[in-house]
Amino acid sequence: MPLRSLYCLLLLVCLTSTINAQDSKLIQLGDVGKVSLSAKEILLQTEQGSISIIPYDSDIVRIQIAQAGKKNNLSYGVIGEPKGTFTDWNQSKTEITASTGDLKLRISKSPYQLRVWNKAGKLIVEDDTLGTTWQGTEVMAYKKMHPTERFIGLGEKTGHLDRKGSFYENWNTDDFGYEAEADPLYATIPFFVGLRDSATYGIFLDNTYRSYFSFAASTDNTCYHFGAADGALDYYIFGASDVSKIIEDYTWLTGRMSMPPKWSLGYQQCRYSYYPDTEVLAIAKTFREKKIPADVIYLDIHYMDAYKIFTFHPERFSKPKSLMDELKGMGFKVVTIVDPGIKVEKGYHAFDELAANGYYAKYPNGKPYIGSVWPGRCYFPDFTNPEGRAWWGKSFKTLTDAGVRGFWNDMNEPAAWGQYIPGSLNFNFEGQGASYKKIHNVYGMQMSRATLDGTKKLMGERPFILTRATYSGGQRYSAIWTGDNVATDEHMLLGVRMVSSLGLSGFPFAGCDIAGFAGEPSDALYLRWLNIGVYTPLFRGHTAYDGRDHEPWSFGETNEEIAKNLIRQRYAMMPYLYSAMYTATQNGLPIVRTLAIQQPFDAMVYDLAYENEFMFGDNILVAPVSSKSNAVKVYFPAGDWYHMQTGEMFAGGQVKLVEAPIGQLPVFVKGGTVTPMVTPGDYVEVQRDTLQLHIYKGKSGSKYVFYEDDGISYKYEDNNIALRNIDFNGMNDLKVAAQTGSFNSSYKYAELVFHGFGPVKNLSANGNKISGKNVIAWGKGEMDVRWEE
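Below the sequence we write its predicted structure tokens.
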């Protein structure tokens, strides 16, 4: 070895040893010195850092622990403002106590240690002896763990429903055809719910650097910990007494989705890629000719000129507006892909504008970062710059003027092929300045924000925004899908858990690529996955350019008929689904709900045999099945459950083997509930004058919220809605409250469809007997409908 090379090697060893020695030194927060107490904030000072404790509500507290210069003064995730107070506080020589009303805090001074009790007096969060620790720039928090503790959430993560025993990292990553245990993936949602000793709590770590959660992933089962590569330890503790309220509180803090365009809940057909325009029209016409309902067709990267954003290919899509108009006439909306990379090409309007204004990621010396993606060498817009976001939003005019109504944000982790994106890159960060290390995990979220803000202004109606990468709070701007999955049963069932976990974590509008983006699905796998998609908010079929066709008619005539009937079932449930979306905008409760939301301490819910089961909205239980099985054991929670296809009733609190032929997923409706449905049309906007109210007999009743608006505009924000509360006693009395809101309902009549009852002999509404069919006028006033068997 040359002497110079040997010298460099020895120098590298020495430097590495020095760095490792420095990094191995753990610095603990230490003893509390200076103390300041008030109704709005507890401020503490130790030798190593400062501590701020703020009551955001009676059951939410924010804990921010920071070393000098690392306080978190800007959050992209949080929009809720503090509205809580400490109702009492006291200080002795050894500890500080304070109460928010629903939470009690006890803080030891030597060393600092936090313990939190809920309203019922249960200890829910307790610092371990390691407490808060730094190692170099990395900050960590260690919490004691109850022996029976479980953990759910963290959004788009692989693995099982119960996260205990696993380690997860947050660093948004483009991972094509990811393994079933891969981590990290595309999104960062550092929020989880803990379940311990019959008590619930939640923790949200609001730190955008690379972060992680270790739920006793080592052999030590006495504590769990989480941390981040840099920045403050800024986290929120939610202490509500049930999981639903924790989700409600978390989405109050980070925001909730707005009502999506109703058409976005219909079936969506996508491929990488449909081109030219004649192929797109052929696909649309085939759907209509075969009477298979569908609302959306996607255009992937081949619609663009040389993959340049905000352009149409001059030959493949030479008359984009004419294409959009023809599709619109058939009831189709078009969604186009948009990637962040802007091709370096003088004369290309997007590049010229971006370069001239400096709205791009820069090296510390001000030079632009250039990375390669689909168009080749690209600049990357700085979406943390308010002016850059505004420019991006205005740039959609080419697409919106042509008639595009949905925008698919892809490659926004951001991805740069085979290249390392330097952590030293500079970003605007709302004028405060920040490195790439700090903004990486929010890059995709802010791209979605810019896309939504721009397109809604240009269109004057609700756009559909879909994203691959995001951060907590991103639900305010977009729906999400789980990236480039694979055509296997394992991925299909994993997708169910991922969508459930996304729902737990504030993202109710989520889904997977049906039948897998990569790989070759069997006929059975396609149909099974399509059947699950019926009960998933985002209902999109998608495949790669070199894969098997995924259109419903691509699997033979017999399977086409099954697929058609499954998609029609989705359209039949549109009133129910749209009402569930409204509920999500009000309290954050997802559409796909793991059973752990309502039965968090039922061990059966976490059994690997049943962890994939979920509720679809309030009333419907879905039991996913492998494509290789024709029967499945189903765990029925408390209540009576009616098989949606056969009508057979199953009592809750038991496991039953249920037949599951292809095309008939085990789906059950809870007794004592009312489920609105409609006769399906070819697309969502097809009007029907009769609403069907499916009424299922039960030992107890339920309350249901039925919602309508025009499905496309923002008039609902001005109370142009039709909202009705429906109260059913479970046996023979249905009360429909008077309508709230000024929207004229789409329905003139309501047809009552009874399940589990004997023949209904007498039916009356508001004291007036009804003869003939079980159809009543669906007016705006209140109704009291009674019947006798």
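The chain has a mean pLDDT of 95.
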